[in-house]
Write a structure and sequence with these properties.
Blueprint (H helix, E strand, L loop, with lengths): L3 E4 L11 H8 L4 E3 L6 E5 L3 H11 L8 E3 L17 H9 L4 E6 L6 H4 L4 E5 L4 H10 L3 E2 L14 H8 L5 E4 L10 E6 L2 E6 L5 H5 L5 E3 L29 E5 L2 H13 L3 E4 L4 H4 L5 E3 L6 H15 L7 E4 L7 H11 L4 E3 L1
Parallel strand pairs: 1-8, 2-8, 4-6, 5-9, 10-11, 12-15, 12-16, 13-14, 13-15
Antiparallel strand pairs: 2-3, 3-7, 4-7, 5-6, 9-10
Helix pairs in contact: 1-5, 10-11
């Protein structure tokens, strides 16, 4: 299969440029497209055969549900029983369109292929102009996980998608780099509160401003058992991972930097803060993912840094742990899964 790239400037584009990918979606084909979080691999969410192609192209396990993308927040009502969840209105008015996914009881329009047999569906309304235009022009909701091979770091640029999907899908829409850099926040709405299943740019602190109880799933910071059924993508398996084994390192600045200096001499990859370079020293094997106190910068740079390690022949990668405030919780969550929860304290 030949993969076509369509260049689109998100700040200024004619919708005609999206006519071909919209037609591909309607005809049951796959299209990779930019969102504010990461690039998505999209198919008609109402077509089970098309959604099966997502699993095949990614090598995705068939017990990992897909997120359904809609054009407007109100469109969620077509596919889920939103009226059963009073807090949905608060979330939709405050955070949609935006980087949040809401899990609610699904309507029969959504095939079981999308929800892997669950009676709930994950719904999201992206804010990215190209994503929204593609959904509207397609005329159908678009099921879309991240546009990478399963287990690999998520793509935040069209080049990342090309590395994983060239020859596997017919079309990639190149809309530049994603602005957030980690996948959407995923919440499940339940009687006892808002259950945060996957952290993202909509943080626990922001959700608490709604005046509702926010419950952090244990799976955010700890592993899920292989036989456990999950409600959300990103809760199971080793995710977001470079080719080399990866370990998260925590401890005092002095101890961590001393450890990194030793591992650098051994030819290991080091993922650290920009300020750490003064102590560790620059090297092809030493990559940074933002300043220590810039959590948004860390989220933006994380997946690109993990993919850059794959261009090197490394025996091991050691990654600096960030703190878990704000979007730092999402950064920690992604790194933990990239490391398969291998964490050491030095």
């Amino acid at each position: 299969m030949k993969t076509k790239i369509i260049q689109v400037d998100p700040a200024s584009f004619e919708e005609e440029v999206l006519a071909e990918p919209a037609e591909l979606i309607r005809n049951g084909k796959l299209v990779a497209f930019p969102t504010e979080t990461v690039y998505g691999l999209g198919a008609n969410a109402l077509d089970p055969s098309a959604c099966d192609r997502i699993f095949d192209a990614k090598g995705r396990p068939h017990d990992n549900p897909l997120i359904v993308h809609v054009y407007r927040p109100d469109d969620c009502r077509d596919f889920a029983y939103c009226e059963e969840y009073p807090v949905f209105e608060k979330i939709a008015s405050r955070f949609m369109p935006g980087p949040i996914t809401v899990i609610m009881r699904k309507k029969s329009l959504i095939p079981d292929t999308v929800t892997v047999g669950l009676d709930t569906v994950a719904l999201r309304c992206p804010v990215h102009p190209v994503a929204r235009a593609l959904i509207r022009l397609s005329g159908v909701p678009i099921a879309a996980p991240s546009a990478n091979r399963s287990g690999r770091p998520s793509p935040t640029s069209a080049q990342h998608v090309w590395e994983d999907m060239n020859g596997r899908i017919p079309c990639i829409i190149d809309g530049g780099n994603c602005s957030v850099g980690v996948e959407s926040t995923v919440v499940a709405l339940k009687e006892d509160g808002i259950h945060l299943l996957r952290p993202g740019a909509v943080t626990p602190e922001m959700l608490e401003e709604l005046g509702e109880r926010v419950i952090l799933s244990k799976a955010v910071l700890s592993a899920v058992t292989p036989d456990q059924k999950v409600e959300s993508p990103g809760m199971k398996y080793r995710h977001y991972a470079p080719k080399a084994p990866c370990t998260m390192v925590e401890g005092t600045d002095e101890d961590v930097l001393s450890f990194f200096a030793k591992k650098k001499k051994e030819g290991c990859g080091i993922l650290c803060f920009e300020e750490d370079l003064a102590s560790i020293g620059k090297s092809d094997f030493v990559l940074t993912f933002g300043k220590k106190n810039d959590k948004e910068g860390q989220a933006y740079a994380l997946f690109d840094a993990l993919r850059r390690f794959d261009r090197l022949e490394l025996p091991h990668i050691y990654a600096r742990k960030t703190d878990e405030t704000s979007i730092g919780l999402a950064v920690t969550n992604r790194l933990l899964r990239a490391c398969a929860f291998d964490v050491i304290r030095v």
